[in-house]
Specification:
The complex is a heterodimer of chains A (about 300) and B (about 210).
Chain A: H1 7-31, H2 38-61, H3 63-84, H4 92-110, H5 114-117, H6 120-134, H7 142-165, H8 178-203, H9 218-239, H10 244-272, H11 287-291, H12 294-309
Helix pairs in contact in A: 1-2, 2-3, 3-4, 3-7, 4-6, 4-7, 6-7, 7-12, 8-9, 8-10, 8-12, 9-10, 10-12
Chain B: H1 2-22, E1 24-27, E2 38-42, H2 48-55, E3 65-70, H3 71-74, H4 78-88, E4 91-93, H5 106-113, E5 117-120, H6 138-143, E6 150-157, H7 159-162, E7 175-179, H8 189-204
Parallel strand pairs in B: 1-7, 2-5, 2-6, 3-4, 3-5
Antiparallel strand pairs in B: 6-7
The chains are: A mainly alpha (about 300), B alpha/beta (about 210).
């Protein structure tokens, strides 16, 4: 079952090994009093164990389980979004309909009906939920609510469902699986976050958009982008059907779009005057704080792969 | 048997519902009383308020947490009475005025003597979603002769959206639970009620959820 000739399995083992090393290093540094807020760091690590544990378990369990996991992630993200962004009491029933798009969208992934998957939310949910909201008969605040609901669904359901849809892509090269693509996308997106943060901390001086995110610097952005592009070139040819050149391009796309996903959610939080979107992942914040970049990288990477490799 | 049903109900229904279908943003958990005798006062917008407050406690303490609830509503019929009294563990309170004032809180006092934690909603009823009704003075009279009983204020936000009064459809949203420091001792009911209202207002500022 656990085949070590499958690069996906080897990668997962390496990630777990890396997490063990990171955990042990952190514990040692905490023991030596080298960390400013040790509790925060340990909470963060614990949350990483949960995230990676659940993700890898679902990968090992198969395509269906993984699709269900991402459906659940969409649910948590949409719920968090609709909790922090104000909607009207009269929108409750329309919002209930919005939740129902999640099983529908992921069912379309599971049966691999691509034509419907790609238009279900932008066309059908878009129109039907607007009509449903009209039928509540409340005009005051209508534009705000109808806009919030659709934008939220696009980010948390539509975008995120592209991660799951990687698993059912009919790849031209039958020697690789969708899991490799999914792992590549998630790893590069998260590493991009980490590298941008590290380069920003070490070298960052000139800020990119201080009004939205004072911690985002040019050094962080370029450093992160360069490292992720390089790493993608290293990992892509092993995990995915992409060759070196296309892996580098994919890494570049992920680096740039990941940055914009991150600052988009920052903008949302700034508007609402909150720091974290929730408490689901102790040490990280809410689920939107964790998947902000992924909501931008997933659809772009998906279409990049779909265009060139199916 | 009822104890077992209570454990199963809270372990398999209430806690998963509160953690997954809803999801909590908790602040000030350290102020939550670990053991009785203690009183929790909270704002009231939904039947789920009680479930959320009780779910903050570990399962093995669940039978020690006693919501004080209207007898006329929760003891309406036989099934509801069994469920409210034995599974949720409410202490019924007579709202109709037929009970002598000096005896009104007898059951509550006994519970406090048994080191239990009472949950009260001083607004009296669920009211409009996320609008605070005028607070009633009962809590002051309940604790005034009870030495060493702390009153911990809790403000919740979001449940009036998830399941408001008169609605049967639960809409999943995250819920803020903000727990404050115990309210100090007061000479008279008016000043106690005023401070409680002020504290509720202050705690409300920490909410991050914004459903109207």
């Amino acid at each position: 079952m656990f085949d070590l000739s499958d690069p996906v399995n080897v990668t997962m083992l390496m990630v777990l090994g890396f997490l063990v090393v990171a955990h042990v290093t952190s514990l040692v540094l905490v023991k030596l009093n080298k960390i400013q807020s040790p509790e925060e760091l340990l909470l963060r690590l614990k949350s990483w164990w949960w995230i990676i544990g659940l993700l890898f378990l679902s990968i090992v369990s198969g395509v269906t389980t993984s699709i269900v996991l991402f459906g659940f992630i969409s649910f948590l993200a949409l719920k968090e979004f609709l909790s922090i962004v104000p909607t009207r009491q009269s929108d409750r029933r329309v919002i209930f309909w919005a939740y129902l798009t999640i099983p529908a969208q992921y069912y379309l992934v599971a049966i691999n009906w691509y034509g419907m998957f790609v238009i279900f939310i932008p066309v059908y949910a878009f129109l039907i939920l607007s009509v449903r909201m009209v039928l509540t008969g409340k005009n005051s605040g209508f534009i705000h609510s109808v806009g919030v609901l659709h934008w939220g669904m696009m980010l948390t359901v539509y975008s995120v469902s592209h991660v799951a849809c990687l698993l059912v892509l009919p790849l031209a090269d039958a020697t690789v699986t969708g899991f490799g693509l999914m792992l590549f996308l998630i790893m590069m997106t998260q590493l991009n976050d980490v590298c941008q943060y590290l380069f920003g901390k070490l070298l960052g001086r000139r800020k990119i958009i201080p009004a939205v995110s004072p911690n985002k610097t040019w050094a962080g952005f370029i450093g992160g982008l360069a490292s992720v592009t390089a790493l993608a070139g290293l990992v892509g040819p092993i995990l995915t059907p992409m060759d070196l050149q296309f892996s580098l391009m994919a890494g570049f796309i992920i680096g740039v779009s990941g940055f914009f996903g991150d600052v988009t959610i920052s903008s949302v939080k700034r508007d609402l005057k909150i720091k974290d979107s929730g408490q689901l992942l102790p040490g990280h914040g809410g689920i939107l704080d964790r998947i902000d970049s992924l909501m931008f990288t997933a659809p772009l990477f998906f279409h990049f792969v779909r265009y060139f490799y199916t | 048997m009822n104890r077992l049903i209570q454990l199963l109900f809270f372990g398999l229904v209430v806690k998963p519902l509160v953690l997954i279908v809803l999801g909590l943003n908790i602040r000030g958990k350290k102020f939550l009383p670990a053991k009785g005798p203690a009183v929790i006062v909270a704002n009231h917008n939904s039947h789920l308020d009680t479930m959320v407050l009780m779910s903050l406690f570990p399962l093995f303490k669940m039978h020690k947490v006693r919501p004080v609830a209207a007898a006329d509503y929760f003891l309406k019929n036989k099934f509801m009475a069994w469920f409210s009294l034995k599974i949720i563990g409410i202490i019924p309170l007579e709202r109709s005025g037929t009970v002598d004032k000096s005896r009104l809180f007898d059951d509550c006092h006994e519970a406090l003597n048994r080191q239990e934690i009472l949950v009260l909603f001083p607004e009296g009823s669920r009211g409009e979603p996320d609008k605070m009704s005028a607070l009633k003075k009962g809590v002051f009279h309940l604790i005034k002769d009870q030495a060493g009983v702390s009153v911990t204020p809790v403000v919740m936000h979001g449940l009036g959206y998830a399941l408001p009064k008169g609605e049967g459809l639960l809409v999943p949203v995250n819920v803020d639970v903000i727990i404050g420091q115990p309210i100090g001792e007061h000479e008279n009911a008016a000043s106690f009620v005023n401070e409680t209202a002020e504290v509720f207002n202050e705690l409300k500022q920490h909410c991050i959820t914004k459903q109207s």
